[in-house]
Here is the input.
Amino acid sequence: MLEARLEQADLLKKVVDAIKDLVQDCNFDCNDSGVALQAMDNSHVALVSMMLKAESFSPYRCDRNVALGVNLTSLTKVLRAAQNEDILTLKAEDAPDVLNLVFENTDSDRLSEYDLKLMDIDQEHLGIPDTEYAATISLPSVEFRRICVDLMALSESVSIETSKDGIKFSCAGDIGNGAVTLRPNTNVEKPDQNVEIELTEPVALTFSLKYLVNFCKAAGLSKTVKLCLSNEVPLLVEYALAGSSYLRFYLAPKIGD
Amino acid sequence: PPTQATLGKFFGKP
Here is the structure.
């Protein structure tokens, strides 16, 4: 059986909220190392890869590998019943029809229990190659969100260019052009505000802003976001979570002129 | 204009 207890329901609520507009039905693959999810959007342009490591739960028990086929819209309805600070426990049998969710508020001695019906999902899994990215940029997640939202007001696409001097986001639209350049910047007192650039070669790629704005719904999960780029490969956008867990998004580039 | 690629072009079957 599976039994996984999260100190705060907030984490799962935010993860599901961040991905539910991108993917609808997906398997939560549970094994002794944790709970993983990999799913592509309908157009096969973006991919969500979530890993909640066993260490992120306390306690965590998973006797047998189990895939929990969940409709995220339905899960959202159930999670709405959990307060952010509630202790959340996920439970399932070895061959489950339902996922049992328990929300506890230890202050008020409230215990809520929900059973979510599961579905059989035949999910297409992709092998994501280990990539040595040419550019890795770490920046505040709210800054990245602001840039994407601002540029989307002008255009559907953004060009991202990185050099050792900085990272430049630019777009061209019907009403005009826009560009934002961030230079490497270290703030000793507020390390969350740092912009860090590691570069082995310059990169220039074009991406759909619609997807990037969607990924930015995860900004509430982490103060910083990491962008990993290499020419002609999908962009990796990573939000690191506590306990080496993560929420990653991959986005295929736009190619050719 | 550039065209949107899909992930299948880059990521194979495991």
Summary: Chain A has a mean pLDDT of 96. Chain A touches chain B through 23 residues (CB under 8 Å). The longest strand of chain A covers residues 46-53. The radius of gyration of chain A is 20 Å.
